[in-house]
Amino acid sequence: MLVKKIEIVQIMPCIADAAKIRVIAKADGELGEVLPYLDKLIPTALHSERGGFITYKRGLSIITLHASGEIAMTQIRDNDEAMKILNEIKGKINDAWERRAEIDLSEVKERIQLSPLDLYTYLPKTNCGKCGEKTCMAFAIKVLNEGKKLSDCTVLTEDKYRGAWDTLVSLLESARYEV
Ligand code: SF4
């Protein structure tokens, strides 16, 4: 068994939905070696080798597993749901590790198609115009068309948007955008 325990280390409000929480957890070991196998077993997963993480959608939540063992989850209802999903993740990690000899890593996944809404969900939604666009939605479209960089939204550098920034970077890097 690669991972015996995953513990919650931080709970914050979720930028995407104020009624929900963003959860940071930590596995009791590094995940770098298992990430490529996990990527193959989770159909919606996207693996960023450069970033050292995989990201996947589970309902409305975005779940990111880092090589360091850190796990970030957005749009979680409460502590009970967080624990349930973390148990599920532990099962997936250990399953992928036990089955690694039979998993073909040579198969290349297609580039994911992100929608503007995928990005907009994690943008500040203030329509402040500092990025040169009139609305956050227009900015999301420009980023996907590679006409703007995520860093053009300077509002995202504020401390309260750190989690949103991390999630947006995960989404974009996994979809093979330059961030
Ligand atoms: S700078 Fe950021 S918050 Fe302001 S409009 Fe652009 S994307 Fe939205």
Features:
globular; 5 helices; binds iron/sulfur cluster; 3-methyladenine DNA Glycosylase II, Chain A, domain 3; TATA-Binding Protein; alpha+beta; 6 strands; single chain; 2 domains; 179 residues; 6-stranded antiparallel beta sheet
Encode the helix/strand succession as letters: EEHEEEEHHHH
CATH third-level topology of the largest domain: TATA-Binding Protein
Listed once per kind, the bound small molecules are: iron/sulfur cluster
Estimated radius of gyration: 16 Å
Unreliable parts: none
In round numbers, the mean pLDDT is 92
The number of helical elements comes to: 5
CATH class of the largest domain: Alpha Beta
Structural class: alpha+beta
Largest sheet: 6 strands, antiparallel
Helix content: 25-40%
What proportion of the residues form beta strands (DSSP E)? 15-25%
Q: Count the domains.
A: 2
| End-to-end C-alpha gap | 35 Å
* CATH homolog superfamily of the largest domain: TATA-Binding Protein
Strand order of the largest sheet: 1-2-6-5-4-3
The best one-word shape is globular
CATH architecture of the largest domain: 2-Layer Sandwich
| Number of DSSP E strands | 6
